[in-house]
Amino acid sequence: MRKSLLIVLSVIMIAVIVTACSGGGNNTPQNTNTGGAEPTETNTNANVNQPEDDGEKPVLRQLMQYNRFDPNDYYVGTFLKEATGYEVKYDQLPVENFDEKLNLLMANQEPYDFMKLNPIQFAHLASSGALEPLDELVETYGTNMKQVISESSWNGAKVNGQIMAIPESSASGLTLGYALLYRQDWLEELNLQAPTNLDELYNVLKEVKDKKNVIPMTGGKDPFQGEIGSALGWDYGLDTQFKEQDGKIIHMVEDPTTKDYLAYMNKLYTEGLLDAEWAINQSNTLIEKFTGGKAFMYREGWWNAANINNAMATNFPDAKIGILPYLKDSEGNASARASGGITFYIAIPKWAPNKEEAMKYLDLKLDEEIFKEATIGKEGVHHEVQDGKYFPILPIFDDQYNFGSDYLTGNDEEKYPVYWQARVRKNEFVQNYFETFQENGKDIMYYDALTFAPPIENISKHKQKLHKYVEDEFIKFITGAESLDNYDRFVEQWRADGGDEMIQAANDWFATVQ
């Protein structure tokens, strides 16, 4: 796979050089499929902000990620056409072998005007020379995007100091995804208070084990429990591996608090307070154990709130589920792990036939009124506002905006997370969990130090392999299969297998943004 990728990227480099020498980029496309039928539904008053037509606009072509809809026959696409005056023909990558297909399209110089790429795809194409540097185009035509996209995000789309894509940040912004859930009715039955720190957590779990004869805390194949470790100063988690400390970037395995966290988790496991099947549990198993009355506490994401509450109501109609506030450390301070950053990169190929017009269109989509209607629709038709919060009007919101985020090509980083919350308000349980998690974590969030970094080659090539190694070893340390006395030996192996190279690369990037 790696060999074939290098061959394809070599072809791309040759194609770029030939294009530059010929002054061209007008090769006949080898694949002219543009997807489904023309949109037919109209949007009244959609062109309120459309600029005066200064000539015939070209038909633009975009390559999108795969999703289960026809982007050429969808309400949001129709709205954007009428609001901007630009017609766009959309192609999607396939559901399988999508990277291979992308590499073939690039080798053939398929004349897309812009593309929506995931971070790995962006890293490969940017390093191969297949993408157009956008600094001049953004400076000349990017009036809106320069106002609504943060400097941190722009930095995350730079390669060797040049802007190589428009960064599209996480729809929800920096938000909290997880918290510990527990059976509140059992606590009340035992006359116990919800724990606020690690000592109290230990005592509650022990009491539940002794009195209820259930699994005190379940979990599965994820040894990165930041909701517990943060009370020890261990500010890491499943997708939070790097931290800024004393002016440099460190990895979790280097942090002395990691051994403290693993020791605490091992104590819980040794005393039967963690699920004995922690190392093999699947995510669906955790829900089954919790909602089936077999486990007292576990960590869960807000997006599963409806499933959890519905299952619990079916099995135990009188049960109460509590959301545990983030635990405090020995000094009474709490912290909570957030996630976010750049999810997609909007890039223009070197050989794109309409670079200037593409940038004009991409910027026009970020006009305040156009962007709002493209993402959340019309007030009174697709959404309503209650106490300053956006709520979807169903079913029309789902019918016409369920795939709306596929059309995003950058977003208003201040306003879009507010608009996006209409999506979590489709269900009362999901809304409650999402809003409670955010309120509990207000002003105490931490996140990975590389959240807004661009893809870095010397990290990308080691990250997956070393993450799996760390995950496996952490589980061994927690379950006692490996003694913590061997932790330093584990770190040495991690460094030798690419960890040192990752740390150096992270700090090299960090130095460029200070």
Describe the protein.
- Pfam families: SBP_bac_1 (PF01547).
- This is Sugar ABC transporter substrate-binding protein.
- Residues 40-50 have a biased composition (Polar residues).
- Residues 24-55 are annotated as: Disordered.
- Residues 27-36 have a biased composition (Low complexity).
- With 514 residues, the chain is α/β, with parallel strands linked by helices.
- Helices cover 43% and strands 14% of the residues.
- It is built from 20 helices and 18 strands.
- The strands form six sheets. Strands 2-1-3-15-6 form a five-stranded mixed β-sheet.
- Strand 10 (242-245) and strand 11 form a beta hairpin.
- The radius of gyration is 25 Å and the shape is globular.
Largest sheet: 5 strands, mixed
Amino- and carboxy-terminal Cα gap: 37 Å
Spatial sequence of strands, sheet with the most strands: 2-1-3-15-6
CA-atom Rg in angstroms: 25 Å
Total count of strands: 18
Q: Overall mean pLDDT score? A: 91
Name the helicity range.
40-55%
Structural category? alpha/beta
Tally of alpha and pi helices: 20
Secondary structure: elements and pairs:
Layout: H1 2-22, E1 60-64, H2 75-84, E2 88-92, H3 98-107, E3 114-117, H4 119-128, H5 135-141, H6 143-148, H7 151-155, E4 158-159, E5 162-163, E6 166-169, E7 175-176, E8 178-183, H8 184-189, H9 198-212, E9 215-217, H10 226-229, E10 242-245, E11 248-251, H11 257-270, H12 283-291, E12 295-301, H13 305-315, E13 321-323, E14 336-339, E15 342-347, H14 355-364, H15 368-376, E16 383-386, E17 389-392, H16 396-401, H17 416-420, H18 428-440, E18 445-446, H19 457-479, H20 487-512
Parallel strand pairs: 1-2, 1-3, 9-12, 14-18
Antiparallel strand pairs: 3-15, 4-5, 6-15, 7-14, 8-12, 8-13, 10-11, 16-17
Helix pairs in contact: 1-3, 2-15, 11-19, 19-20
